[in-house]
Amino acid sequence: MISLTSPVETRAHQWPAGLKLGLLCFVTGLLFITDHLIFHSVFLLAIVVLYALPGRAFFKSGWQHLKILWPFVLIVVLWHLWTDELQRGSIIAFRMMSTVALANLVTMTTRLSDMIDVVHFLAKPLYRSGLNGRALELAIALVIRMTPVLVSKGQNLTWAWRARSTRHSGWRIILPFTVLALDDADHVAEALRARGGLINPEK
Amino acid sequence: MEKNIAYTALFAALIAALGLVPQITLAFGVPITAQSLGIMLCGTILGSKRGGLAVLLFLLLIAMGLPLLSGGRGGLGLFVSATSGFLIGWPVAAFVTGLIVEKWRSASITLVASIASIIGGIIVLYAFGIVGMSIVLDKTLPEATALMLVFIPGDIIKAVIAGFLTAAIAKARPASLLSRSAKAA
Amino acid sequence: MNKPLEKPITQVTKPITQGCSIHLDEVCLEIEGKQVVNKLSLSTTIKRLGVIGRNGSGKSTLSRLLSGLIETSSGHIEVAGINPFKDRKGALREIGLLFQNPEHQIIFPTVIEEIAFGLRQQGQNKKTAEQNALQVLASFGKEHWQNVHTSALSQGQKHLVCLMAVMAMKPNLIILDEPFAGLDIPTKKQLRRYLDKFSGSLIHISHDPEDLNGYEQLLWLEGGEVAALGRYEEVLPRYLNEMDTLGDSDDISDLAS
Q1: Which UniProt keywords apply (chain C) (predicted)?
Q2: Are strands C173-177 and C201-205 parallel, antiparallel or unpaired?
């Protein structure tokens, strides 16, 4: 499964993921405490520049992810036009776009493997209170492995429906789909047990 | 132990798959995706702990940058957007839904699962969602509620469907209905 | 990779019985950059057509193209006089498709619902559909199956339910995508008997030529193209020969480019 990390290499790809995430939290907090229109406008502009720096492909891909915000931007603008508080509305809209754009920037410049490392690092205190690190690792790998498998089974089911109906399959497909997922879960559990189970020699 | 991991991971994958197979929508004219139905099913089928964990795992993978949210969305941006409250509320919704199904044994599973889905998948979930939206859009809670009201009827229908689906699963795979089985390994 | 094959025979020497007509004209299908079907052209009218080829040769894809579930990238398809992708109503009337894995095909919890489903989609109301579904069960001697849960059936029984569900819709053509895969010998024999009862045309896809014994014509697919189309007695020995030769090679090591 392809992650949302951008194939366009930037310098940020090399920075440690933990650092990026920490900075993200800090800056996002800052954005929420600040209330100046000029600050938010300039900040948003700066982010747009950041997106443009790595080139057209990067910018286009980033824009795709931000386009989905438009209904909320519209609601805010219309609402505040109606209550005659356009300045307040602009701050809200800019802030929303900035925070989402910044967070998305981190996603686009951080590799999945680096993210997984951060997760393990953050989960360390939980290991002491009983969370099995190997289990977490395995669970992540399983979801990545099995999602495409389930997607293709779901696709087959929709075809089986369309082979006998001109109507939309709707929710009825979800029953056999769920049964398939449950059966796969049983098989996977069996396969895990057959290969030694969850004995955890490393920790 | 292996069963826990397998079931949790497969249901996380199922939630993803429900959002990624384009033709699976609950179209009553409007294409409503089936992913939130999957959240309810995590609770009604897997129970509170495993159901909650499955959704948490799903969120973790989205946060790490995998495009598993319906329509192929993903990434950290989703967790600060206007609907982030709903995302954060999902595992809680699954947990509460599962808890009700586990504890309330005296009525038919269809009824229990539907009501559990309404309480967990709508009431609890919308609480989180509305708070999140009010923060991001800087609106009061009643204002944010008004914005979200339009989605509730559709979600009630989803909850009822979840009830029927759970009952059908209970018949087809009774051993897999972890929310009602004795403490599994 | 693909060895150049002998010049393919694309003419049927003698039409044996009138059946369903299929016309493919330079059909191409590209999936995610890969050319799955490459300028496939064939024209035939046959009661019993077998489709053979290695796994990955495009047989399943062909079944989905012929039943109109997927669209061609280019080229022209006509099955039983209609374009099955564009004319879904006509396709549902004329063509039935049996998938390889009944787990991916059975949608409903009980047998009667599964069989009645197609009938309801064809426009019958609930009562009529149920009655007709019962009739289909009766013609197979399986009335006692009506309320059985589909998940309680054996592998072979599930295949049979799928077959009944498709036959209930009374198509003129049934396309079978490896319907006997993974079944034991007695089950295969029994299912084949049920299949032989069908009075319409059959297009039977299999990688095991044993299943196609008695079929008039064979279509041999290789790499999304026609390797041969002709009488069973002519195509089969060449196919078996080629498969044997390939078995001596090690192309299992080749990764997809």
Answers
A1: ATP-binding, Cell membrane, Membrane, Nucleotide-binding, Translocase, Transport
A2: parallel
ipTM value, please give it.
Answer: 0.90
Query: Would you state the structure tokens that stand for residue C191, as one six-digit string?
Result: 């299912």
Q: What is the DSSP letter of B33?
A: B
Q: Where are the domains of chain A?
A: 11-113, 132-194
Q: How far apart are CA C231 and CA C219, in angstroms?
A: 9
Q: If you count them, how many residues does chain B have?
A: 185
Residues A5-39 as b or e (16 or more Cβ within 10 Å = b): bbebebebbeeebeebbeebeeebeebeeeeeeeb
Contacts of B21 in chain A (CB under 8 A): 151, 154-155, 158
Interface of A with B in 148-187 (CB under 8 A): 149-151, 153-155, 158, 168-171, 173-175, 177-179, 181-186
Give the tens place of pLDDT for each residue, B133-144: 999 988 888 988
Of C107, C118, C165, the CB nearest to A176: C107
Domains of chain C: which residue ranges? Answer: 20-108+166-247
For residue B183, the SS3 value is coil
Domain C20-108+166-247 carries which CATH code? 3.40.50.300
CA angle C162, C164, C166 (to 5 degrees): 70
Summarize the confidence of residues B168-178 as an average pLDDT: 88
Note the pLDDT tens digit of each residue in C57-68: 888 899 999 998
Return the CATH number of the domain spanning residue range B2-176.
Answer: 1.10.1760.20
**B-chain residues within 8 Å CB-CB of C151?**
172-173
Closest residue of B to A146, CA-based?
B13
* pTM exceeding the 0.95 threshold for the entire prediction: no
